[in-house]
Specification:
By secondary structure, the protein is α/β, with parallel strands linked by helices. It contains 11 helices and 10 strands. The chain folds into 2 domains: 11-39 and 155-293, Rossmann fold (3-Layer(aba) Sandwich), CATH 3.40.50.1100; 59-144, Rossmann fold (3-Layer(aba) Sandwich). The structure holds pyridoxal-5'-phosphate (PLP). It comes from Streptomyces johnsoniae.
Length: 304
């Protein structure tokens, strides 16, 4: 195992009168407890890629993300744990001389070299990431690297998240397995692995991403499984104004959930997913069982 982990992650029932009134059962798949350094879906997505990188003799990982990317600092931590170097190409050259936020500071503490890039070049590089010319350019700048896309979502990553379904025995037609959606890799893997009847339910955390995220999940299914799957959908109602936004209604929901159930939830993804589950529960068929994947843990407040 390239990164040892506590698996299977716990599956915890949630007892809540609000959900009971709707006749909906909720349980939490605590992937946030997998590993203290690389938690949740990051571990599931990175491990198959780390294995491929090490098997291929790579000594450096290179990836992409915004200033608050969980994926970027997870790659830094994973690379440090495996003894390989890492580079983070960060969107926004204006950040180069700004004080580091905790996310980038943590990446640097883990030895990641940060390359701040203007938004246009960043977008162009990601758009052409699979082109040989782009790869040659990255290699000229950084040497031989194992390249992970933004958010780490490639076919190997999706196969990694598919692994969590094997830890959910007895799924059937009354089951919805729910996760937040940033780039779609986690949802793609879950949907591909579900048994007949069960459905995957993604909650988009990005504003205005309807269509785009569905296309990304479909692309990952085609590249990872050579086919598409009909058993999933994405809710676009609970992005709370966009990735960077943490409006009062969302933080109040997260606080109330913590008070009632003793679990502090990561705000940008996990709180939005749970908020959507609670708001949608009355519209679900009675008897539905929702398994919400807790894909990460809270770090520090966004203002830190
Ligand atoms: C805690 C958490 N949940 C969910 C996601 C979204 O996963 P995906 O990009 O596979 O859709 C992320 C993104 O990295 C994340 O940090």
């Amino acid at each position: 195992m390239v990164l040892p982990a506590a698996l299977p992650s716990p599956l915890v029932p949630v007892s809540d009168p609000e959900l009971a009134r709707a006749g909906v059962e909720l349980r939490l798949k605590r992937d946030d407890l997998i590993d203290p350094r690389v938690s949740g879906n990051k571990w599931r997505k990175l491990v198959p890629n780390l294995k491929a990188a090490l098997d291929g003799g790579h000594t450096r990982l290179l990836t992409f993300g915004g200033a608050w990317s969980h994926h970027v600092h997870a790659v830094a931590a994973a690379a440090a744990a495996c003894g390989v170097a890492s580079v983070g190409v960060i969107r926004g050259d204006e950040l180069a001389d700004a004080p580091r936020n905790w996310s980038l500071a943590e990446a640097e503490r883990n030895g990641m070299e940060l390359a701040f890039t203007d938004r246009r070049s960043y977008r162009d590089t990601l758009r052409t990431l699979d082109d040989p010319a782009t790869r040659r350019r990255l290699e000229r700048r950084w040497g031989r690297c194992y390249v992970l896309p933004e958010g780490g979502s490639n076919a190997l990553a999706a196969h990694g998240t598919a692994g969590l379904v094997a830890e959910l025995p007895g799924l059937g037609p009354r089951d919805l397995v729910c996760c937040p959606v940033g780039t779609g890799g986690t949802l793609a893997g879950i949907a591909a692995a579900l048994p007949a009847g069960a459905r995957a339910w993604g909650v988009a955390v990005l504003k205005g991403a309807a269509g785009y995220l569905e296309d990304e999940v479909t692309r990952l299914h085609r590249s990872g499984w050579g086919r598409t799957f009909p058993n999933w959908h994405i809710s676009h109602t609970h992005h709370a104004g966009g990735y960077a936004r943490l409006p009062a209604a969302l933080t109040a929901f997260a606080r109330a959930f913590e008070e009632r159930h003793g679990l502090a939830v990561e705000p940008r993804y996990v709180a939005k997913m749970l908020h959507c589950v609670y708001d949608t529960a009355p519209a679900l068929p009675r008897g539905t069982r929702v398994t919400a994947v807790i894909t990460g843990r809270p770090h520090r407040p966004a203002t830190a």
